[in-house]
Amino acid sequence: MSVRQTIIISCFVLLALGKLGDSLRCFECTSCNGPVNRNNTKTSREFNGTEYSCWKLTARGVATARGISNSCVELNAGGFGTWCCKTDLCNGAILPVPVAYLVLLMAFGSVTLFFKGS
C-alpha cells in the first residue's frame, strides 16, 4: 500500500470515528476567573450533544462561570456577557482546535499529495 493510499484511508477512518460519539463535554465551574484546563476544572458531559451548548458567563470581568445547558442564549450588554459554543471544552479561556479542522487539513493534504503524485 502506498503512502498516498494510507493517508487517504486514514482520513476516511478519522471522519467515520468523529461521528461515533455524539456527546458534548464542557468545563463547569462557578468562580473560575483564571484560565481553566482539564487539570484544575471539573468537566461535564451530555450524551445528546446536538441539543446542548457549553456556555461561559462573565460579569464585568470580575466573575466568570462556565457550564452546559440545553437552552443557551448569547448576550453581551453593559459588561455582562454569555457566550455559547458546541464543541468539546470550548468554554475555556483558550479554545482548542476542533477535530473537524484537523481532519479537513489532513484531507486537503491527502488530495494535494494525490494530485501531485499523478
Automatic annotation (TrEMBL):
<keyword id="KW-0812">Transmembrane</keyword>
<keyword id="KW-0472">Membrane</keyword>
<protein>
    <recommendedName>
        <fullName>Protein quiver</fullName>
    </recommendedName>
</protein>
<feature type="transmembrane region" description="Helical">
    <location>
        <begin position="93"/>
        <end position="115"/>
    </location>
</feature>
<keyword id="KW-0732">Signal</keyword>
<keyword id="KW-1133">Transmembrane helix</keyword>
<dbReference type="InterPro" id="IPR045860">
    <property type="entry name" value="Snake_toxin-like_sf"/>
</dbReference>
<feature type="signal peptide">
    <location>
        <begin position="1"/>
        <end position="23"/>
    </location>
</feature>
